[in-house]
C-alpha cells in the first residue's frame, strides 16, 4: 500500500509540471556522478556518496546499487527523491542535509532498516506523519535548521528513537506522543518557540541530554525530577525565574542557565500574616495526617473512597515540618551553589530552587534559609 502511495505521489507531481527531474547540470557534473555510480554498481558498494555536486535530480544508476547501506547526498540542490529508490531496501544511514527539500520524501518510508536520517538545513515545513510512523528502526533523526512548526503525533511510531534533533525550527508545542519514544537519550529543541514543557516529560527515564535553549519557557515542571538519568540540561535564553525541587533528583553534570531572569538573593522585610485556610484544605490536611496512623478510622474510610484518593494524590509535604498539604501553600525559594550542591562539572553560580511551605507559621519559624518570593510592582 505504501509503495503504491509513493508512486501515485510522484506521478501526481509529474502531472503538475513541477517534477524535480528537470536538470540544469553541466554534462561534466552528470558524467562525474554517473562514473562514480557505475563503479559502485559493478562493485555493489555498501556506501554511496554524491556530495557537493549541485545535483537537482538523482542519477538513474543510483537505483541499481541495491546493496547500499549508506547513502550520502548532502550539499546538493535536491527537492525530491524518486520512488525507484525503493530498491535500496538495505539502507541504514541516509544523509540529505543541506539540500532544498520542502517535504520529507515519501520514499524514505520504504527503507525499513534506516537507523540514522539526516535532513538538516533544508526547507521542511513539516515532518510527514506517513513517513515518520514507518521509521520504527530509526535511532537518530536530525532535522535541525528547517521551518518545521509542529512535531507530528505519528512520532509515537519511532519506538527505537534515541536522539531527536530539531534545533532552529518553529516548534511551539511538544506533543504528548513523543513520550512514547521511551528510548530517547537526547532531545535537542533549542531555538524554537516552545512555551511549556509537558509534565509527562518525566516518563523519559533514559533521557540524558535536554537542550532547550532559546525558547519561551517560563518554568520547568517538577516532574523533571523523574528524569533521574538526566546529565546535561541547557535552558539558556528563556524566561525561567527558579528551578523546581525535582532538580535535586537528576544526575546533572552540566547545567546551562545563562540569560534567564532568575530570582536574585535580595532579602526585603515583610509584614507578618496569619494563615486563613478554607474548610476544604483543613479537611484535606486532617485526612492526610490520619494516614500516618494505621488504625485511624478516618484513614480506613478514606481508602475506600476513590474520589477522595483522587483528590489527595496531589498532596505535597512542607520542606520544613514535613506535614502534608493540598491546596494552600507558601511559595518560597532558597539559593544554592549549583556546582557544589548539584555536583556539576561546570560553573553555574548560585541558583534559586523552588520550595513550598505549608503555612506562615513555618515560614516565620527560626533557623531556615527559605525566602518568600517577592516580585517588583
Walkthrough of the structure:
This protein has 377 residues and is an alpha/beta fold. It is 18% helix and 14% strand. The chain has helices spanning 2-15, 27-43, 129-132, 279-290, 297-302, 306-312, 338-341, 360-363; strands at 47-49, 70-72, 93-95, 116-118, 140-142, 163-165, 186-188, 209-211, 232-234, 254-256, 316-317, 324-325, 330-337, 350-357, 371-372. The strands form three sheets. The chain has a ten-stranded parallel sheet with strand order 1-2-3-4-5-6-7-8-9-10, with no helix packed on it. The longest helix has 17 residues, at 27-43. The radius of gyration is 28 Å and the shape is elongated.
Which terms would index this structure?
377 residues; alpha/beta; 10-stranded parallel beta sheet; 3-stranded antiparallel beta sheet; 8 helices; 18% helix; elongated
Counting H and I runs of at least 4 residues, what is the number of helices? 8
- Spans where pLDDT lies below 50 across 5 or more residues: 8-32
- Hey, roughly how much beta strand do the residues contain? 5-15%
Shape: elongated
What is the tally of beta strands? 15
Write down the overall mean pLDDT.
84
N-to-C span: 62 Å
Oligomer: single chain
Sheet of most strands: 10 strands, parallel
H and E order:
HHEEEEHEEEEEEHHHEEEHEHE
Return the structural class.
Answer: alpha/beta
Strand numbers in spatial order across the main sheet: 1-2-3-4-5-6-7-8-9-10
Helical fraction: 10-25%
The value of Rg in angstroms is: 28 Å
Amino acid at each position: 500500500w505504501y509503495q503504491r502511495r509513493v508512486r501515485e505521489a510522484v506521478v501526481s507531481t509529474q502531472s503538475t509540471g513541477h517534477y524535480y527531474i528537470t536538470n540544469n547540470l553541466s554534462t561534466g557534473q552528470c558524467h562525474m556522478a554517473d562514473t562514480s555510480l557505475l563503479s559502485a554498481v559493478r562493485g555493489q558498494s555498501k556506501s554511496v556518496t554524491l556530495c557537493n555536486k549541485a545535483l537537482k535530480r538523482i542519477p538513474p544508476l543510483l537505483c541499481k546499487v541495491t546493496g547500499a547501506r549508506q547513502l550520502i547526498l548532502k550539499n546538493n540542490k535536491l527537492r525530491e527523491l524518486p520512488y525507484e529508490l525503493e530498491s535500496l531496501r538495505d539502507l541504514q544511514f541516509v544523509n540529505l542535509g543541506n539540500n532544498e527539500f520542502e517535504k520529507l520524501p515519501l520514499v524514505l518510508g520504504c527503507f525499513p532498516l534506516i537507523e540514522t536520517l539526516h535532513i538538516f538545513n533544508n526547507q521542511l515545513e513539516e515532518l510527514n506523519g506517513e513517513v515518520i510512523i514507518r521509521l520504527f528502526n530509526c535511532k537518530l533523526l536530525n532535522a535541525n535548521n528547517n521551518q518545521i512548526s509542529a512535531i507530528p503525533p505519528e512520532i509515537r511510531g519511532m519506538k527505537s528513537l534515541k536522539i531527536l534533533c530539531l534545533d532552529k525550527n518553529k516548534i511551539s508545542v511538544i506533543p504528548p506522543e513523543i513520550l512514547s519514544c521511551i528510548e530517547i537519550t537526547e532531545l535537542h529543541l533549542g531555538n524554537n518557540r516552545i512555551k511549556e514543557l509537558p509534565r509527562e516529560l518525566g516518563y523519559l527515564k533514559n533521557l540524558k541530554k535536554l537542550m532547550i535553549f532559546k525558547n519561551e519557557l517560563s518554568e520547568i515542571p517538577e516532574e523533571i525530577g523523574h528524569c533521574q538519568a538526566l546529565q546535561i540540561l541547557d535552558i539558556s535564553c528563556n524566561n525561567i525565574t527558579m528551578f523546581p525541587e525535582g532538580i535535586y533528583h537528576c544526575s546533572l553534570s552540566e547545567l546551562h542557565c545563562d540569560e534567564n531572569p532568575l530570582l536574585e538573593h535580595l532579602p526585603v522585610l515583610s509584614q507578618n500574616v496569619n494563615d486563613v485556610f478554607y474548610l476544604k484544605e483543613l479537611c484535606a490536611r486532617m485526612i492526610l495526617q490520619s494516614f500516618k496512623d494505621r488504625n485511624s478510622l478516618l484513614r480506613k474510610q478514606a481508602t475506600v473512597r476513590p474520589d477522595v484518593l483522587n483528590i489527595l494524590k496531589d498532596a505535597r509535604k512542607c520542606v520544613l515540618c514535613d506535614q502534608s498539604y493540598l491546596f494552600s501553600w507558601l511559595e518560597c525559594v532558597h539559593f544554592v551553589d549549583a556546582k557544589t550542591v548539584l555536583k556539576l562539572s561546570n560553573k553555574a553560580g548560585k541558583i534559586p530552587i523552588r520550595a513550598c511551605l505549608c503555612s506562615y507559621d513555618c515560614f516565620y519559624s527560626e533557623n531556615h534559609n527559605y525566602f518568600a518570593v517577592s516580585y517588583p510592582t
